[in-house]
Amino acid sequence: MLRHIYSSYFPQDSETEKKRLQSCAFTWRGQKWEERPVDDKELPRMFVEGKKQLPFVRDIIDVGSKNMLFNDIIVFTNSDTCVSSDCAKQIEKRLKKLDACYCFRKNFSAETFEISDEQIKSKPDWVGSDLHAFKVSWWKENRKNYPNMVLGREGIDAIFRVLIDEGGDWPKTKLDGLIWHIAHEPYWEAPDIRYRLPGNRLNVQLAKTFLEKRGISPEKFSFK
């Protein structure tokens, strides 16, 4: 069984943002996986950042994967990650041989809401890997190795990639052309607040500790 786990965040005040997320949800239909949105109310805690409350990545996956079997597959994405028509099929095929994998997204303009599989494959990778898939057994073994980072802030994908590639299966761990993203300006990347946001500061410090422990320079991932 494959289960698609994601935070069930949905904007209340932006029609453009709603349309962007709805277009992604549309691409999830027909995938051979079970949808599992995780509501903030299901989580044991939240990270408070002023008026915002952010969920912890580990908590989302723990709650979303409850009652799954060891060989079942978790597909963890952002709520604004669109997928190719054969996304679930390609993940299941790859994880017959591996325990975990990931995929970098392809960015498209905000005016584009319908993308073919051929268009996805034709675009170069963007810097973010917005899909991480792994067997429940892998998550049970590695969850404590994943830093206690918060969703919606810097660095969570880079750490997933390092942890997944530690298994020694790279480059097979990297899937290509399965996800895309409607380009927008993330709140946390705004230059005037990026290095002041508590969530970013938390994630970057945790990422630095994680990487330095492994002898990896944080500068490799542009962590300042």
Helical residue percent? Answer: 25-40%
Task: Give the CA-based shape.
Answer: globular
Total helix count? 7
Would you report the number of β strands?
9
Strand count, sense and barrel status of the largest sheet are: 7 strands, mixed
CATH architecture: Alpha-Beta Complex
Order of helices and strands: EHEEEHEEHEHEHHEH
- When the domains are counted, the total is 1
Strand order of the largest sheet: 2-1-5-8-7-9-6
The CATH class, by name, is Alpha Beta
Could you state the CATH homologous superfamily? Spore Coat Polysaccharide Biosynthesis Protein SpsA, Chain A
Radius of gyration: 17 Å
Distance, first to last CA? 39 Å
Give the helix/strand class.
alpha/beta
The overall pLDDT, averaged over residues, is 90
Given as residue ranges, the uncertain stretches (5+ residues, pLDDT < 50) are none
Strand content: 15-25%
Oligomeric state of the chains in view: single chain
> Per CATH, what is the topology?
Spore Coat Polysaccharide Biosynthesis Protein SpsA, Chain A
Characteristic key phrases:
seven-stranded mixed beta sheet, 9 strands, two-stranded antiparallel ribbon, single chain, alpha/beta, 31% helix, 224 residues
Compose a concise summary of this entry.
This protein has 224 residues and is an alpha/beta fold. It is built from seven helices and nine strands, in the order βαβββαββαβαβααβα.
What do these coordinates show?
- Helix 1 links the parallel strand 1 and strand 2 (34-38).
- This protein is an alpha/beta fold and 224 residues long.
- It has helices at 15-28, 57-64, 87-94, 117-122, 136-142, 156-165, 198-213, and strands at 2-7, 34-38, 47-49, 52-54, 73-77, 82-83, 100-108, 129-135, 174-182.
- The chain is globular, with a radius of gyration of 17 Å.
